[in-house]
């Protein structure tokens, strides 16, 4: 492939890693564990992998040796910067112990395992992708590994290739599937270990043992650069309000981190909206009031950050969506037979009075977006809902009302943006390049220690990389029961923004100042070379959570 000058230079970068992983290690079992909630139910579903201990690594006085082993790897779900380095770290870790070990990549996500589509990842291939963004080394997909018939189909190719361990790189749903697969293969004595790696740019796969999911650092820095560019532009032209929707369906970590990095005039945090029982009207009034205050100071411009999943956190909208989803799941065929021009009236006639009134009040395009096909879990595809356009238009409408009352004067001009794909395949920051390589290497150590049902964990990442702590966390430890498609299922508990946490509290203490003052920060592009405080720093969120800022 043709490479840019940056790719050529980045290929030479050697990821930093915990000093413990630079020498032979042995796995040390810690205390036995239990799930974060619903212990009885989770134990019943995962009798062979529940309660297993946390694993840490200690330096071994003996050289680690093993027969050659074959390992499979899957990239699952949406792309996140650093995935290639997880695979590179896994490859190097396997080869360090035995040069004859082999790594196979399954194509386009879990479907590659089920459909027996794969390729061997050799050194020549791995070297082409070190420190690069994207998942294009083997591709990714969103097929769910949930059915025993698929597990059995996968086992056929695993046995054919003599694969004794499988690494699944993915988010909370993908790692939930990894746990289910580990349990099944353990139950039937398949002889296949399953290890997970925490990936998602949304940042909602974290807990006491998993400090952050990979890709979050890079994505937030990419988005923050773009936000900074827009803020510089609007501070130059001084005529537009920019409404910017950011990735983050189930949590507002990206919006919060980008706000801490760029100091926008307004940032909506979904979790706060839900906690305060705010309505759509409350949010519109909040934005319109700040627009009015800035206009009085001669500043008819600004930036608004909006989490992707906001509509599902507005309590009234959440109730509407829940009823709408339940109805559409049961009556999908009937709904699809209704003419498009009659669909909104049809839905209104089927909803309860309160929800019907709210649905009828929505702009037509948003109302239609709420009836789009659901995802695999029966959820509304919120990325297709133009929340940024909805809020901008409703604020414009509100300001026109206030103009007639003499409460607002002048024009209100806006632009809308959605930053999503722009950050998913970016070249990883030094932090993500290092973190991901260490995760992959840690996964190889868990495999050599004959562990299964674990997620690779690298902690203490606000320190220099040599002081990072590597180990393994039982995936069952992170689980609870949740309602999915009208059924209770075991899933990894999502980490939402904690309103009493230091990152949000820091933001909350400054947002009133940022709303009126034009105190923009322009982070600029990702830096790869230079002082560590420029190149290797983790997110502000992580430093605040770890009391390092």
Total strand segments: 15
Helical proportion, percent range: 40-55%
**CA-based gyration radius:** 24 Å
Largest sheet at a glance? 9 strands, mixed
Shape: globular
Low-confidence region ranges: none
Instruction: For the record, give the distance between the C-alpha atoms at the N and C termini, rounded to a whole number.
Output: 42 Å
How many individual helices?
A: 22
Please state the structural category: alpha/beta
Would you give an account of this structure?
There is one protein chain. The longest helix is centred in the middle third of the chain and has 22 residues, at 216-237. This protein is 43% helix and 15% strand. With 549 residues, the protein is α/β, with parallel strands linked by helices. The protein has 22 helices and 15 strands. It is globular and about 80 Å long. A hairpin with a 2-residue loop joins strand 14 and strand 15. It has a nine-stranded mixed β-sheet with strand order 1-2-13-12-7-6-3-4-5, with helices on both faces. Strands 9-10-8-11 form a four-stranded parallel β-sheet, with helices on both faces. A two-stranded antiparallel ribbon has the order 14-15.
What brief labels describe this structure?
globular; alpha/beta; 4-stranded parallel beta sheet; 9-stranded mixed beta sheet; 549 residues
Element layout with pairings:
Layout: H1 5-11, E1 25-29, H2 39-45, E2 55-59, E3 70-75, H3 83-97, E4 102-106, H4 110-114, E5 118-120, H5 123-129, H6 148-160, E6 163-170, H7 172-187, E7 193-198, H8 216-237, E8 240-246, H9 253-262, E9 266-267, H10 270-275, H11 280-296, E10 302-307, H12 315-330, H13 332-336, H14 343-350, H15 353-361, H16 364-369, H17 387-404, E11 413-419, H18 421-424, H19 430-448, E12 454-459, E13 469-474, E14 479-484, E15 487-492, H20 502-516, H21 532-535, H22 540-545
Parallel strand pairs: 3-4, 3-6, 6-7, 7-12, 8-10, 8-11, 9-10
Antiparallel strand pairs: 1-2, 2-13, 4-5, 12-13, 14-15
Helix pairs in contact: 3-5, 3-19, 8-9, 9-20, 11-17, 12-15, 14-15
């Amino acid at each position: 492939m043709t490479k840019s000058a940056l790719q050529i230079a980045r290929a030479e970068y050697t990821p930093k890693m915990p000093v413990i992983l630079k020498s032979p290690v042995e796995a040390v079992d810690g205390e036995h564990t239990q799930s974060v909630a619903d212990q009885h139910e989770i134990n019943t579903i995962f009798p062979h992998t529940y309660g297993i201990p946390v694993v840490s690594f200690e330096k071994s006085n003996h050289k680690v040796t093993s027969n050659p082993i074959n390992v499979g790897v899957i990239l699952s779900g949406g792309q996140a910067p650093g995935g290639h380095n997880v695979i590179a770290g896994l490859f190097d870790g396997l080869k360090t112990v035995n040069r004859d070990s082999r790594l196979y990549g399954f194509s386009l996500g879990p479907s590659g395992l089920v459909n027996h589509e794969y390729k061997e990842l050799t050194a020549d291939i791995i070297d082409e992708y070190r420190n690069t963004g994207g998942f294009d080394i083997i591709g990714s997909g969103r097929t769910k590994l949930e059915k025993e018939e698929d597990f059995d189909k996968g086992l056929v190719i695993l046995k054919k290739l003599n694969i004794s361990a499988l690494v699944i790189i993915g988010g909370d749903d993908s790692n939930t599937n990894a746990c289910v697969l580990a349990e099944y293969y353990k139950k039937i004595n398949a002889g296949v270990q399953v290890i997970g790696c925490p990936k998602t740019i949304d940042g909602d796969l974290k807990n006491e043992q998993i400090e952050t999911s990979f890709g979050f650092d890079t994505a937030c820095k990419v988005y923050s650069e773009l936000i900074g560019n827009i803020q510089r532009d609007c501070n130059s032209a001084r005529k537009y309000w920019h409404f910017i929707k950011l990735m983050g369906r189930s949590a507002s970590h990206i919006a919060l981190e980008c706000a801490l990095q760029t100091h926008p005039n307004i940032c909506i945090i979904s979790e706060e909206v839900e906690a305060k029982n705010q309505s759509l009207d409350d949010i519109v009034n909040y934005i319109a009031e700040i627009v009015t205050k800035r206009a009085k100071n001669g500043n008819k411009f600004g930036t608004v950050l909006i989490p992707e999943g906001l509509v599902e956190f507005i309590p009234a909208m959440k109730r509407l969506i829940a009823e709408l989803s339940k109805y559409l799941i049961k009556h999908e065929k009937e709904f699809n037979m209704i003419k498009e021009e009659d669909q909104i009236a049809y839905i209104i006639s089927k909803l309860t009075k309160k929800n019907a009134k709210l649905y009828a009040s929505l702009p037509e395009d948003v109302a239609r977006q709420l009836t789009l096909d659901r995802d695999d879990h029966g959820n509304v595809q919120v990325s297709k809902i133009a929340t940024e356009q909805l809020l901008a238009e409703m604020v414009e409408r509100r300001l026109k009302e206030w103009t007639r009352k003499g409460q607002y004067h002048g024009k209100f001009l806006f632009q809308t943006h959605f930053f999503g794909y722009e950050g998913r395949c970016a070249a990883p920051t030094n932090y993500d390049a290092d973190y991901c390589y260490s995760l992959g290497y840690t996964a190889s150590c868990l495999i050599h220690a004959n562990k299964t049902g674990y997620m690779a964990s690298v902690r203490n990442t606000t320190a220099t990389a040599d002081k990072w702590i590597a180990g393994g966390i039982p995936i069952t430890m992170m689980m609870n029961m949740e309602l999915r498609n009208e059924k209770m299922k075991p899933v990894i508990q999502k980490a939402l923004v904690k309103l009493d946490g230091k990152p949000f509290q820091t933001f909350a203490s400054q947002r009133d100042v940022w709303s009126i003052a034009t105190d923009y920060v322009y982070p600029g592009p990702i830096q790869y070379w230079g002082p560590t405080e420029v190149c290797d720093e983790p997110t502000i969120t992580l430093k605040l959570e770890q009391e390092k800022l």
